[in-house]
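wait is this the right file?? whatever heres the structure
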């Protein structure tokens, strides 16, 4: 399954549209994951026929009640943890994020908030921050039918 991951768009609809066009060169994403801050930039993609899973960020003040602060879900048998990261204080340390991912049994933990791209593998868990849309940063993740994961960062970093 091909996943398009972005975060921290903060109303940059043009950047989101550019990202969609760039990402579609390899085929339309089957699922879009949004890690908060600019929630309607992500939710509006549902009107274009995309399946979107999103969490609220610290700047998402007026959010539909069904949008959680975190979620864990499977993709091809791989548990994915999605959050914005502000409650886990990811700007200070990734330790709490790693611990939460381990607690919920995730193999991939996706977060935002720092506006800095990151892809790190630690003790069987991928930590992924797609960066910020203001820098035209995003990530593409493929989870194959056997649960293999491939993550690629795109953008300026």
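ok assuming it is, sequence goes like this
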């Amino acid at each position: 399954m091909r996943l398009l991951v972005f975060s921290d768009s903060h109303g940059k609809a043009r950047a989101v549209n550019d990202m969609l066009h760039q990402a579609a060169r390899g085929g339309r994403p089957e699922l879009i994951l949004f890690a908060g801050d600019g929630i309607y930039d992500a939710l509006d993609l549902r009107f274009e026929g995309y399946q979107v899973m999103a969490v609220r960020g610290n700047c998402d003040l007026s959010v539909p009640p069904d949008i959680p602060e975190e979620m864990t879900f499977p993709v091809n048998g791989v548990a994915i943890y999605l959050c914005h990261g502000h409650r886990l204080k990811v700007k200070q340390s990734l330790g709490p994020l790693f611990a939460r991912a381990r607690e919920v049994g995730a193999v991939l933990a996706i977060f935002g908030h720092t506006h800095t791209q990151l892809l790190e593998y630690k003790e069987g868990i991928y930590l992924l921050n797609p960066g910020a849309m203001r820098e035209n940063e995003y990530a593409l993740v493929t989870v194959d039918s056997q649960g293999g994961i491939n993550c690629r960062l795109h953008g300026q970093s």
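The chain has one domain: 2-154. so i think its the right one actually
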